Amino acid sequence: MQSWRGKSLWLALSASWLLVLLRVFPLLRLAVPARPWASAPQGWPHWLDTELLPSFSQPGELPEDAPQPPQAPRGGGCDWGACFDASKCRTGGLKVFVHPVAGPISAAHRKILASIESSRYHTASPEEACLLLFLSLEVPAGECSPVPQQWNGGRNHLVLDLHPAPCPQTFQLGRAMVAKASPTADTFRPGFDVALPLLPEAHPLRGGAPGQLRQHSPHPGVPLLALAEERGRWRTAGTDPSACPWDGRCEQDRGPEQTHPGGTLPNATFCLIPSHRPDALHFLQALQAGCIPVLLSPRWELPFSEVIDWTKAAIVADERLPFQVLAALQEMPLTRVLALRQQTQFLWDAYFSSVEKVMHTTLEIIQDRIFGASAHASLLWNSPPGALLALPTFSTSPSDFPFYHLQRGSRPVGRFSALIWVGAPGQPPLKLIQAVAGSQNCAQILVLWSSEKPPPSRWPETPVPLTVMDGQRKVSDRFFPHRAISTDAILSLDGHSSVTTSEVDFAFLVWQSFPERMVGFLTWNHFWDEAQGGWGYTAERANEFSMVLTSAAFYHRYYHTLFTHSLPKALRTLADEAPTCVDILMNFLVAAVTKLPPIKVPYGKQHLEATPPLVPGGPEPQPTARDCINQMAAGFGYMPLVSSRLRLDPVLFKDPVSVLRKKYRSLEKP
Amino acid sequence: MGQVCLEREEEAACVIMCASVKYNIRGPALIPRMKSKHRIYYITLFSIVLLGLIATGMFQFWPHSIESSSDWSVEKRSVRDVPVVRLPADSPIPERGDLSCRMHTCFDVYRCGFNPKNKIKVYIYSLKKYVDDFGVPVSNTISREYNELLTAISDSDYYTDDISRACLFVPSIDVLNQNTLRIKETAQALAQLSRWDRGTNHLLFNMLPGGPPDYNTALDVPRDRALLAGGGFSTWTYRQGYDVSIPVYSPLSAEVDLPEKGPGPRRYFLLSSQMAVHPEYREDLEALQARHGEAVLVLDKCTNLSEGVLSVRRRCHKHQVFDYPQVLQEATFCVVLRGARLGQAVLSDVLRAGCVPVVIADSYVLPFSEVLDWKRASVVVPEEKMSEVYSILQSVPQRQIEEMQRQARWFWEAYFQSIKAIALATLQIINDRIYPYAALSYEEWNDPPTVKRGSVSNPLFLPLIPPQSQGFTAIVLTYDRVESLFRVITEVSKVPSLSKLLVVWNNQNKNPPEDSLWPKIRVPLKVVRTAENKLSNRFFPYDEIETEAVLAIDDDIIMLTSDELQFGYEVWREFPDRLVGYPGRLHLWDHEMNKWKYESEWTNEVSMVLTGAAFYHKYFNYLYTYKMPGDIKNWVDAHMNCEDIAMNFLVANVTGKAVIKVTPRKKFKCPECTAIDGLSLDQTHMVERSECINKFASVFGTMPLKVVEHRADPVLYKDDFPEKLKSFPNIGSL
């Protein structure tokens, strides 16, 4: 009896226990806060009635809404569409007039004026111009430059303001755009104003110092950080993560540092430019030195930010997060560091190293706005050789240029066009035509007849189309972008040149691997002549070379466009006067664009014997020719030519193996 | 964390149980017959404790089924049941948006200080229903799109439910369409959010701003410092670098299935599909149509549609009826004209159809213009130039048009097609601003996948000829052939540009010879001992390498002359981004076997160089060691072969360029290794090498090697010229 009662009691007890347990547990769970697996799925709830929710717009409201009369641009602000009248530029092209400057001007201003006048956009007549440039001068504090004539409410005006602290009550800008050195992001009107770099007084007019970077990757011994200090000086800083190198509060734990004397460029991987030193000179210094600028303030608009993708060359960081920034710099992958370093050099060289480049970039940006859809693509601005050397008038498709095949995954298209220039003697180059037409890769032959004699009426039968064009009597005409040229590759020849089919074939193949360079047979070398105190060049055979003769060379047809439309007129005139100059000029141009030497391919000895005086005036150039190279160097502002010590031969060239194995066996004929 | 909770919970359960047991023991009914009862009692007690433990365990490790059923009521609720918040009429209103706000003035980055991996954390306020003093709701609680948007954020990596660690706050107050809300009361609702703090770090999404009659281009709700992701900004209201311009979502994106149509010429050159176009503009468009006939099509609302047909999906021209948005695929260019608002949903439809939008809306800030390059996908025409639009478009070359069509479609796919895409792109843009050093690049934002796949970004893209004075570091990999090694060291040390010699001692069982036994040379000589005998040790980026140029050389390559090596270095200087080596090899496609084949015969072509002696940039050591794709590194170490082929693949893949073979050298002949030249060994060797090529090509997913037909020789090589005047007279034979 008792045992039964006991048992039932036990049973009841244990049952109630279980119940208690089950009831208590959920409560317990609530009492214990923030269980990880309970929190993870929490988030925005999945509503039961999601499907029933109304759409944010009523049908009829979208895709249209009530029509509204066109609004006139509001006063106060300006943007490109509202304040610039581009119609005049579209019809006549961008023409720039500079308002005459009243009163004395500084050397820096004179350089700016000179660089604009040298631009292909410059015009002397304000009626013709669609952009009027006004140079805002440094005037005593409180005063302002007078409003120029033909101000026209500032319409189509660009005010060049090169002083970091502008005149406080600048005259009514009206609709004028402002090109200003390191403007603050607050007052900058994107797409309308232009942000300029702050140029030092001594910035060269053209040419300019090259970037300091001599190697791609940072030397292992180079410190990681340099910190900008007063008056353009730099201090290398430790990377102790507990110290914030740009903050005065932790000056005491600087670690091993040294201050560089003023004027030298920083030698570090990253250059920190704190916001309390808005000395924009630091920025250009870092850029030139190949030291990656780390701007600790997002307040400035970076120079030419409209077109330059600064994320590829600089780091804009927030100084309010010092530890994250330092950690990010220390942990930055080598690949990124390499890319940033190289980009600083490219940008310095392409847009900043001289006053001329800075001003031409400014005008090019405005030109791009006018062009709209056919402006430079971002790729053209942000990869070598840069937008000043990649003319959008040539093509809007990057694959048409010789520079972007890698980035685009494309190849130069088609075969080549042989362009034979027939000069004074006026002999039809029959043998040459046969040799070139024999090549599988020849698409067409163009004869540019520039002789006084009339061209013969009959030309040999060739498997490829042969066109005779009546050239002008100028040597530079051979580098004119003739419409008839239909291929990317041009084989430039002189009437008296001599090449074999096999040489042409091999050279074309090599050119396809280096479409941005000149590939030639005969070479010259330049040298610094101590005795004369100038540059000289020689046609003598030597262990190195820096130019190939355009009397037999492959190059991309884009260089014709560049030669005709971007070179200063003075240089082209010079070339017309002395025929050897034209070779030098073309080599200067290509070297300035590529920064690389041309390529030499094998050339049979028999040609040399057949046509001895390839260089007019023999191997020792005449005094005028010597002058020529120096005048070219002066015109470019520096010596762009680069020497090479190698020649590209076929893989089995002159190897002691059966001649049957060799593809280019005729190249080896004695 | 989980562990701690679990233990604490069990403890608590135990305390309660024990307490009850004690009480039971004292119970009067249990006192008699203790002995036999005791056993039962203990057994029962034990089983209860056991049961309790099992129950605990069940709660712990059966999370989801139990959880979801118990949380069901919390998670799966109706929008109608959300808590109601009453807003008193006099509750504070935020100030109007501050037009001077920028990230460095109005945004509190310190809140983003915690976030690891350079990713901002976003908190979403829970949904409430706001009513005024009279109980009248302030707005629709939430729209389908805003719910989708918040779900997308909640499902993303950005989401956090910890308000104290969040960097960005997204209110659940739906302001997508200004017309559906009461402006003052919505502002009051914003102001009472728990972390509002003048709107700092708060992000509002709005697609339809303004209202009649003047249609402001930004949301009219006062919002103080809050960031605004808005559709239809004009340059006057857009705070550059602070606000985000977003698209106006087109509901047709989800409703209509529109298969992609490739680029190319289409039936109409220019199409206008918008219904509510201002009469003045319609006149201009119709004038265009009259002038250019068939090429221009201007569509309008249909007036005589039968009942039941969705008027949104039809457009008419005279009596012709067209399906919308399908008709957009018939046009090359499509007009996107502003209405009362600048942002138009038609832009999304147009992009989707691969039609190039012609945006005619002065001062309109295009969606995501901070990162997207609209020049590549659209043509912007000023309103006053509308009559010239045809001639402006005619000047765009066909190739560029096709590029733009492709680009338009890609923009839609990546950034327009769903609310989710719009939300994530917005957050990515803000994330990029806060962590600029980890931001996505221009190419990542703008290049369509096909371009990304085909393009190569050479890591050493700067045209630069390093100075000769820097010299090179020779790295000799050796195991135990000391005698041969010493000869190599002596030979290499004769090269003028050698700046350092590094011996990688790959034999763990044997010590390298004593210091005194090594040849005395004019440059520093360092010996590095390795932990394992692996071939990849030769390509390790040792700290000792100070020069950019590296000469990898085997310990048995003794026949290369000093002139050959010096010339090799000079060639490398002119091609610092390439592998510069002596004997060249070739890969060929074997049509019978349908796979790649390794070729070492006399060929006119070359695609690889052997790294038994080769110059290259030291960066490639870093790539080989840390960035080699797939399991290639392990494969090489396991097979003790093909490290040179792997290096050739790596360099060609990353630079997109061919190798440079220098001098006629074809073989590394040496007295010790003549035995390997035996025919049978040679054949297995070739099979193995072919296998490597096939393996690597499959890992890389492509054949990166480039075939060329040239090699580099000194300028005067084999020329009829006095030998003593040549820079490199002693270029060896084969």
From TrEMBL, chain A:
<dbReference type="InterPro" id="IPR029044">
    <property type="entry name" value="Nucleotide-diphossugar_trans"/>
</dbReference>
<keyword id="KW-0325">Glycoprotein</keyword>
<dbReference type="InterPro" id="IPR040911">
    <property type="entry name" value="Exostosin_GT47"/>
</dbReference>
<dbReference type="Pfam" id="PF03016">
    <property type="entry name" value="Exostosin_GT47"/>
</dbReference>
<keyword id="KW-0735">Signal-anchor</keyword>
<keyword id="KW-0256">Endoplasmic reticulum</keyword>
<keyword id="KW-0472">Membrane</keyword>
<dbReference type="InterPro" id="IPR004263">
    <property type="entry name" value="Exostosin"/>
</dbReference>
<feature type="domain" description="Glycosyl transferase 64">
    <location>
        <begin position="416"/>
        <end position="653"/>
    </location>
</feature>
<dbReference type="InterPro" id="IPR015338">
    <property type="entry name" value="GT64_dom"/>
</dbReference>
<keyword id="KW-1133">Transmembrane helix</keyword>
<keyword id="KW-0808">Transferase</keyword>
<protein>
    <recommendedName>
        <fullName>Exostosin like glycosyltransferase 1</fullName>
    </recommendedName>
</protein>
<comment type="pathway">
    <text>Protein modification; protein glycosylation.</text>
</comment>
<keyword id="KW-0328">Glycosyltransferase</keyword>
<dbReference type="Pfam" id="PF09258">
    <property type="entry name" value="Glyco_transf_64"/>
</dbReference>
<feature type="domain" description="Exostosin GT47">
    <location>
        <begin position="103"/>
        <end position="331"/>
    </location>
</feature>
<keyword id="KW-1015">Disulfide bond</keyword>
<keyword id="KW-0812">Transmembrane</keyword>
<comment type="similarity">
    <text>Belongs to the glycosyltransferase 47 family.</text>
</comment>
UniProtKB/TrEMBL annotation, chain B:
<keyword id="KW-0256">Endoplasmic reticulum</keyword>
<feature type="transmembrane region" description="Helical">
    <location>
        <begin position="40"/>
        <end position="62"/>
    </location>
</feature>
<dbReference type="Pfam" id="PF09258">
    <property type="entry name" value="Glyco_transf_64"/>
</dbReference>
<comment type="similarity">
    <text>Belongs to the glycosyltransferase 47 family.</text>
</comment>
<keyword id="KW-1133">Transmembrane helix</keyword>
<dbReference type="InterPro" id="IPR004263">
    <property type="entry name" value="Exostosin"/>
</dbReference>
<dbReference type="InterPro" id="IPR040911">
    <property type="entry name" value="Exostosin_GT47"/>
</dbReference>
<feature type="domain" description="Exostosin GT47">
    <location>
        <begin position="117"/>
        <end position="396"/>
    </location>
</feature>
<keyword id="KW-0812">Transmembrane</keyword>
<keyword id="KW-0472">Membrane</keyword>
<keyword id="KW-0808">Transferase</keyword>
<dbReference type="Pfam" id="PF03016">
    <property type="entry name" value="Exostosin_GT47"/>
</dbReference>
<keyword id="KW-1015">Disulfide bond</keyword>
<dbReference type="InterPro" id="IPR015338">
    <property type="entry name" value="GT64_dom"/>
</dbReference>
<feature type="domain" description="Glycosyl transferase 64">
    <location>
        <begin position="472"/>
        <end position="717"/>
    </location>
</feature>
<dbReference type="InterPro" id="IPR029044">
    <property type="entry name" value="Nucleotide-diphossugar_trans"/>
</dbReference>
<protein>
    <recommendedName>
        <fullName>Exostosin glycosyltransferase 2</fullName>
    </recommendedName>
</protein>
